Every structure is written in structure tokens, then in C-alpha cells.
Amino acid sequence: MSKSKGDARFALKQARSAARRGDFGNAERWSKSADRMNTVAERLAAPDPFENGDQNDEEVRAELLRRLTLFAEAAHDITAWEAERDIYEANLFAAIANGTEPPPPLRPHPGGPLSGDEYLAAIAQGKF
Questions:
Q1: For the residues of 29-50, what is the DSSP string, one character each?
Q2: Measured between alpha carbons, how far is residue 26 from residues 7, 52, 101, 105, 127 in Å?
Q3: What is the pTM of this model?
């Protein structure tokens, strides 16, 4: 039994003793202390959420590097697509105004149905 669990049991024992004596103020104080100590004991017994577990640092670094590379490429593609879209729209409006043939269709957005920000967020979250 850990020291924290032992302290929690002692506090609970003190709370029961105070309640038997009719000292409800101290019984409540010891009871709250026992609850807090029990919570601390449970937290200490739980695995550390910041430990990598089975993954080593190299795997984490490799995954982060992959995501960052993909993110940078996607951001560049989106910027290029937006520039192409602006040129396409200008040419389309000019063709309509002059009664000429419209330009060829614009290539699809790099993120597909996702907006630029949604696409980049999905990459950062590892969905791509």
C-alpha cells in the first residue's frame, strides 16, 4: 500500500472517529481530506499520460517531420491554386465581357472538398 493510500485511510478513520463522538465539523474536514488524499493516490498510481509508452522518440520525430513536410507542401499547393484561381477568374470575366471563348477549366482544389484551412488542419492532425 502506498503512503498516499495509507494517509487517506488514516484520514477516513479519523473522520469516522469524529462522527462517533458527534464532532461533525471535524468529521467533515477529515472526510474531505480523505477524499483529496484518495484522489492523489489514484493519480499517482495512474500511468503518466506524457510518457510515450511503446513509441520511441525517433518514431515520434519521424511522424512529426512527415506531417510538417506534407503541411508545407500542401500550403504551397493551396497558395499556387489560389493564384491560378484569381488568374482564371480574371480571364473568365474578360472572355465574358469580350464575347470570346472561356479559358480551360481550373484544376481541382488541392484539398478536394475541404477548404484550405480545413485541409491543413487535417494534415496537422495526421488524417492524411
A1: HHHHHHHHHHHHHHHHHSPPTT
A2: 16, 43, 89, 79, 54
A3: 0.54
Domain boundaries, position 27: 3-45
Closest CA to 72 of 14, 124, 6, 2: 124
Same-domain status, 65 and 120: yes
Tell me: do 40 and 65 sit in the same domain.
Answer: no
Number of domains forming the structure of the chain: 2
DSSP for 48-77, written as a single string:
PTTS-TT--HHHHHHHHHHHHHHHHHHHHH
Distance CA 124, CA 128 (A): 8
Predicted pLDDT of residue 106: 94
